[in-house]
UniProtKB/TrEMBL annotation:
One of its GO terms (molecular function) is histone deacetylase activity, hydrolytic mechanism. The keyword Transmembrane does not apply. It comes from Boletus edulis BED1. It is an enzyme of class 3 (hydrolase). One of its GO terms (cellular component) is nucleus. The keyword Repressor applies. One of its GO terms (biological process) is heterochromatin formation. Belongs to the histone deacetylase family. HD type 1 subfamily. Residues 48-335 form the Histone deacetylase domain. Gene3D superfamilies: Histone deacetylase domain (3.40.800.20). This is histone deacetylase. Its EC number is 3.5.1.98.
Length: 401
């Protein structure tokens, strides 16, 4: 068993901790991982479970694989004073994405961190990689959006589909990449980047976003609704599963077989999982009521993906606006990915940000009492819709791109 590649460096933590929407969250996450001694976890044979990899900065060429030159020239210019308000607005550097000190470092370093994981796959260093500072799924081709300044998810998918497929993938074909987004918010940038309603054969990329959608809830997109094969925008490789308020472990356990069936039909060589934690109980978004432990929990989902699914897996971060709870969740998921899950009853070790974990001072994220509004009738409707989608995918599965 290969160790899990964990992408981190002091520079990445410092720069990521400057992100306006998540000040110091990166510091909390990596400090808690270290405090629990996850870097020292070992298998019964003594082999280390975690291999730390230092990220490199993405090159201009790598960033230009998706982003426009104008956007990069503007955001990466070290002498930019952001006084030209028309350009500031054009490139989305306002409202939820203000310019900030360190943005010129942040964009290439976060993109490079996620691409370092792709490199680890290419060099067969690991089967599973973790980059909690990545997962910026709202960043658009030519502008920042939704707290996201760089489209590292898209850059990773573009790079992964150029790698050779798994040796066990059967007849010769190009690699397939499945992107699964577990964030509270729809993966608009990623889904739109690969959306192709005129597709007639098996695609190299399948995006699947599980999220909350409601009138006025960010981001507003026609692709955030349940797929409709009769709709002109329908693409069986761009899938959405919107859940109502209060979505809990019970709901995720109910819909999870849908995801498994789509995965089995698509047969990906690489799986990119955006592990946003803004749907957990206690998050300021206060929309879902998800947990990190138990049947149907976030931890349960990641355990199944990492230890039961074929292919190489990349776990990314994302939303999460209670920084202590984000640190709890991603520390626990790191231990799950490593095959040595921590006890959710474990006490938070004493370290420099220990007081932030009051009042429980334990690893688990406290359960909420929000009512799950995903009725049996709604979930049955979801199952019926995806039954039709899967049938379409099965018809296309005989043809490789």
């Amino acid at each position: 068993m290969q160790p899990v590649a964990y992408i981190v460096s002091e520079e990445l933590v410092r720069v990521s901790s400057l992100l306006p929407s998540n000040r110091n969250r990166s510091l909390l996450v990596h400090s808690l991982v270290s405090a629990f001694g996850i870097q020292s976890l070992a298998l019964p044979d003594g082999q280390r479970c975690i291999k730390f990899l230092r990220p490199r900065r993405a090159t201009s060429k790598e960033l230009l694989a998706y982003h426009t030159r104008d956007y990069l020239d503007f955001t990466l210019n070290p002498s930019n004073d952001y006084e030209d308000l028309s350009q500031v607005a054009e490139f989305g550097l306002q409202d939820d994405c203000p310019p900030f000190k360190g943005i010129q470092e942040y964009i290439p370093l976060v993109a490079g961190a996620t691409l370092t994981a792709v490199y680890a796959f290419k060099e067969n260093i690991c089967e599973v990689a973790v980059c909690w500072d990545g997962g910026r799924h709202h960043a658009q081709k030519s502008h920042a959006s939704g707290f996201c300044y760089v489209a590292d998810c898209i850059l990773a998918i573009l790079a992964l589909r150029r790698l050779p497929p798994s040796p066990s993938s059967g007849p010769p074909r190009r690699s397939r990449v499945m992107y699964l987004d577990l964030d509270l918010h729809f993966s608009d940038a990623v889904s739109h980047a690969f959306h192709n309603p005129s597709v007639t054969a098996m695609s190299q990329v399948l995006t699947f976003s599980i999220h909350h959608a409601a009138p006025g809830f960010f981001p507003v997109s026609p692709l955030s609704s349940l797929p409709n094969p009769e709709d002109a925008l329908f693409d069986p490789f761009t899938l959405s599963l919107p859940l109502q308020k209060g979505a809990s472990c019970r709901t995720f356990a109910r819909v999870w077989p849908i995801i498994e069936r789509i995965k089995d039909t698509f047969q990906p060589d690489f799986i990119v999982v955006q592990c946003g934690v803004d749907g957990l109980a206690g998050d300021p978004m206060a929309t879902w009521n998800w947990s990190i432990g138990g049947l149907g929990s976030l931890g349960w989902c990641i355990d199944r993906i990492v230890h039961s699914w074929s292919g190489k897996k990349l776990l990314l971060g994302g939303g999460g606006y209670s920084s202590p709870n984000a640190a709890r969740a991603w520390t626990f998921l790191t231990s799950v990915a490593a095959g040595r899950p921590l006890s959710l009853d474990a006490e938070i070790p004493d370290h420099r940000v220990f007081p932030l974990y009051q009042p429980s001072f334990t690893l688990d994220v406290a359960a909420g009492n929000m009512q799950d509004q995903n009725s049996n009738e709604y979930l049955q409707h979801i199952e019926d819709v995806f039954g039709r989608v899967q049938a379409i995918l099965q018809r296309l599965s005989g043809e490789s791109p």
